[in-house]
């Protein structure tokens, strides 16, 4: 722990969907790099259990260097509700005074054949993945534009799915393309406040969203065969890129999209 460079020391970050998968890995990575972290999770029993586990992991991480309550807080809520983002941002600002980084990460993906996609599934996916991203980013950037000094970093969790189609993802890929477009327009609109907006585009990452899909050994081997680095990703693969985009190392980077896919997108073989 003591050898980790503190690239985010003194910065405050808030993240949605931060108790499982990629979000969880980023939370622990930001804590390791010295940030204060406010974490949103859906307020249900499963999410609460994950939040408790994350709390223990964070406690184990920070035990030698500080009190957990000084650097970490959890705020439940559904990102599809406009007030959730406001509550998350308010909690971070109340505890640490400002907001430096906001990561819109919450998302759902239920694989479904096109002809089996119901209006309810479409609306649920759109509300969580895209409408939720808008509401929470709007809340974060409202704060960033008004604080002293103004500015901050917004990171939208898009996907390689924003750039390609998926036979069982016709309700999902449009939302991730929407997140990418939202980030690009936000970068144009918010630069005058010193707010940078960038998107991360994960490839095939082993998370709870696709664990059933990757359990098919033939499909997993096919995917690994298409990835130049020879393996599917793990949540920790997103930590470095997320730290980079949240730190001063990326001070002149905005409106960018960073693929984190092991080379999958560029491999046409």
TrEMBL record:
InterPro entries: NAD(P)-bd_dom_sf, SDR_fam
Keywords tagged on the record: NADP, Oxidoreductase, Rhamnose metabolism
A single GO BP: fatty acid biosynthetic process
UniProt key word Oxidoreductase: yes
SUPFAM superfamilies linked: NAD(P)-binding Rossmann-fold domains
UniProt keyword NADP, yes or no: yes
One GO molecular-function entry: quinone binding
Family statement drawn from the similarity comment of this UniProt entry: Belongs to the short-chain dehydrogenases/reductases (SDR) family.
PANTHER family xrefs: (3R)-3-HYDROXYACYL-COA DEHYDROGENASE (PTHR42760:SF83), SHORT-CHAIN DEHYDROGENASES/REDUCTASES FAMILY MEMBER (PTHR42760)
Name listed for the protein in its UniProt record: L-rhamnose-1-dehydrogenase
Organism listed in the record: Geranomyces variabilis
Gene label: DHG2
């Amino acid at each position: 722990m003591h050898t980790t460079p503190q690239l985010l020391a003194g910065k405050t970050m808030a993240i949605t969907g931060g108790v499982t998968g990629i979000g969880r890995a980023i939370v622990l990575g930001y804590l390791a790099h010295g940030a204060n972290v406010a974490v949103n999770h859906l307020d249900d029993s499963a999410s609460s259990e994950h939040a408790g586990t994350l709390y223990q992991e964070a406690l184990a991480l920070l035990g030698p260097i500080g009190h957990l309550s000084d650097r970490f807080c959890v705020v439940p809520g559904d990102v599809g509700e406009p007030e959730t983002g406001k509550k998350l941002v308010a909690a971070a600002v109340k505890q640490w005074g400002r907001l430096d980084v906001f990561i819109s990460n919450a998302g759902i993906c239920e694989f479904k054949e096109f002809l089996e996609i119901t209006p309810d599934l479409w609306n649920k996916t759109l509300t969580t993945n895209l409408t939720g991203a808008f509401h929470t980013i709007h809340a974060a950037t409202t704060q960033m534009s008004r604080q002293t000094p103004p500015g901050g970093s917004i990171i939208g969790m898009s996907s390689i799915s924003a750039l390609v189609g998926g036979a069982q993802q016709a309700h999902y890929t449009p939302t991730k393309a929407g997140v990418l477009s939202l980030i690009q327009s936000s970068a144009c609109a918010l630069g005058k406040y010193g707010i940078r907006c960038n998107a991360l585009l994960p490839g095939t990452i082993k998370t709870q969203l696709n664990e059933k899909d990757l359990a098919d050994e033939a499909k997993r081997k096919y995917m690994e065969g298409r990835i130049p680095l020879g393996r599917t990703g793990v949540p920790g693969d997103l930590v470095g890129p997320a730290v980079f985009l949240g730190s001063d190392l990326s001070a002149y980077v905005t409106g960018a999209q960073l693929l984190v896919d092991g080379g999958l997108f560029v491999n046409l073989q």
